[in-house]
Amino acid sequence: MKRRKFIQNASLSTFGIAVGSSVFASEIKKSISEVNEILPKNAGYPMVIATWNVNDSTAEAWRVLQEGKSALDAVEKGCMIEEANAEGQSVGIGGLPDRDGNVTLDACIMNKEGDYGAVVYLQNIMHPISVARKVMEDTTHVILAGKGAEQFAISEGFEKTNLLTEASKKAWEEWKKTSKYKPIINIENHDTIGMLAIDKNGDISGGCTTSGLAYKMAGRVGDSPIIGSGLFIDNQVGGATATGLGEEVLKTVGSFLIVELMRQGKTPQEACEEAIGRIIKKNPDFKDFQVGYIAVNKKGETGYYSIHDGFWITKYQNEKNENIPSSFYDKK
Ligand code: GLY
Known about the structure:
This protein has about 325 residues and is of the alpha+beta class. The protein has helices at about 1-10, 25-40, 55-65, 70-85, 130-140, 145-155, 165-175, 245-250, 255-265, 270-280; strands at about 45-50, 105-110, 115-120, 145, 195-200, 205-210, 230-235, 240-245, 290-295, 300-305, 310-315, 320-325, 325-330.
């Protein structure tokens, strides 16, 4: 199954095969075995990859894939696990609030057809990723914001929930004593959750969900819900998603850039490194903030790279749910 799909996806001409009536079956067979030999050991699908150490999320996405469901179902269910984790202070309930004490959530989702849905500045709703999916599937729009997004969610049956936990309220009250605004690098080894999945058919989807920058200005929206910045999927090529300081990802349209670089022939790793390089080039002050990218291509090869040490990813593939430290730039 995997082999057949890979052959469909690979460009046969890459392997020197003239596709046409003159091609003998034996030549094709030989080339198939050559293709299998050059497949990297870590390639293949189904697979799930996510930013940060989120084993419960990737395990849930994997479980959904094992049921034979789509990559889209997998990323939604996987992201929902972190959104419901009240102890995580950068996603969903328990997220650190803005400077006025309001928890505001951003999320987006993208499917194999290249459809996209997002919510920005959503309050009082536990699962922005699911609202984003509803925007994509049940409306003629792609982004809903603020009150309108909340009203839409409620009309779709989502419950109103107080997202500000005691721990996050306490942290905000502590922050108010100085009101010092500074991005926190590798916040609690966790930040925006971006997830990419490939299902058994080799189709790719992705999701991205966050409470955004802690103590941000009211109304601030980051990269996570913006197509091409926090997430981009092209099912012919691959997908990419981002974590870290959204402003820098937005200015370089990072996830779209990575997918385009893969389209031009770069590996996921090379593409992630180049996207981080673009940020570093335009920011002499890159030492003060973190950005991390993950990417996957159509073969299930993955890449991950960040500016600084401390970025981890979680990958579920071949029955193994692994936390892996990302390589990083951080040249002193
Ligand atoms: N990457 C999340 C944010 O900056 O909002």
